[in-house]
Amino acid sequence: GIFHFKGNTMIDASDEYDLLKLQNVKRSLNGIYYNMFLTGLKNDTWNSFKFIYKFNKLDDNRYWVSLKIPKPDKEFFIENNSQKIVNEFEDIVQKNGGRIQLLAPQTQKIYDLDKLKVSDSIFHLKCTIKNEYSFSELFSEYSELLTHFATKSQKH
To answer: Please, where are the H alpha helices in 57-102?
Structure first.
């Protein structure tokens, strides 16, 4: 449907830069990843799967695994193609006595953008963060920004 927004500032906090896309900022798909946790594996033959990008063994003997999904010709088909790869990987994991314990509902898409800011009032949240932070520091930084903008909107 149609959305009507009214405000002094619009901040895009989406991973896919949805607001900036609506503002005709050019974005290009840089990478597609499917992240998951594995448990109960009997051996390590699963880790030769051709689409594994990274994996880490955790202290509790689970694994965090990231699959790098090949880019399809059209973005519309990303989830279909990635699901086929995840199904193939799941078969291999099960043959190794394991299971996928936790799977993201969809792929993680990484984009390159021409710019993060359209104007002083329309921008992506990432342009306010100047450094690389840990997750806890990012949460704190975003919380401060949220408080700042909430206070600013109450004054107007």
So the answer is: 78-95
Element housing 136 (H / E): helix 135-155
Each residue's pLDDT tens digit, 4-58: 877 888 888 887 888 888 888 888 888 999 999 999 999 889 999 999 999 999 9
- Per-residue tokens: 128: 């306010």
Distance CA 100, CA 40 (A): 9
Adjacent-strand bridge partners of 28: 112
The structure tokens listed for 154 are 């109450």
Cβ partners under 8 Å of residue 16, min gap 6:
109, 111
Kindly report the pTM of this predicted structure.
0.67
Estimate to the nearest angstrom the gap between the alpha carbon of 43 and the chain centroid: 29
